[in-house]
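Figure S4 source data
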Amino acid sequence: MKLLPGLIFSFGLIVSVLAQAPTDATDTDVSARSKALEVAGAFSNDGYKIRDGYWAGEIDSSKPQLLEVNLFAGNEYWFTAAATPPARRLAVSVYDEAGKLVDFQAYNDGPSAAAGYVPEKSGRYFLKLSLVEGDKAPFCLIYSYK
């Protein structure tokens, strides 16, 4: 694992591949994706297109998830995540290629959270998904762009 300067790593795995629906998806996995799509739907009313792919897994307060994405300058992005109980509150944040936290719009509503960002330059960025309150639970993260 390559460590990025300036970014304190108490993160879990770096995931750079979009996950498709797991073959052993449970009701809670489906519920997390449904909640994420519900929140992202509000952005689609503003002209954002929801990507077909998504990330899914388990989130634990001791192991935030770090996800790698390639973003294009000038595009507007919203990264939307949701989890099921016993998770109570999530946070999504955005970092540049050097591991520096960028200025982004934050949305938090309990077990749903989102981060809006417009990159000034194209390149590799990282999303940090954290479980702020609650216990280990399934999550889903999707993103929208325009």
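Figure S5 source data
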Amino acid sequence: MSENRPVHTGLEGRIAEIIMEPLEAQGYELVRVQVVGTETPTVQVMADRADGVSFNLDDCTTVSHLLSAVLDVEDPITTAWTLEVSSAGIDRPLTRTKDFCKYAGFDAKIELNFPGPGGRKRFTGKLVEADAETVRLRVEKDEIVALKRVDIRKAKLVLTDELIAFTTQPTPAD
């Protein structure tokens, strides 16, 4: 599992495999691919700029044109489909090791595929640390739970004033 790359499976994994290198070659990083719907599916792609600068509308346009061309050639979905490109946003999904590490100290919601510590599937707390295999989350009463990354169904940041302040700080390139 790469620190800079999310892990996808199935159709989403195939699409991620197709778009990852062209995205990276243009200075972007893949955050998440999600396919929504069946009859006319929507391929949702969330991306970041590799240089750390905020992902803006021009970036959405650039990535959308790039991925439309790449996916039209590779044609991973045989029926009609729609492409949506967006930034990950402030309360972003956490899909890469570097995201869990960057946002250590901030609140997150994590849902597992099946019951984990304490027989629970859903956890909310402060991110403590993460590596390629495990995410540690401080939950109620200062208990720290270790959650296996392979068991995480979805994880995202919780929108708080502290998170807003952190994500709206100017970056060196701004």
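Helices lie at 10-25, 57-74, 97-102, 161-167. Residues 115 and 173 are 43 Å apart (CA to CA).
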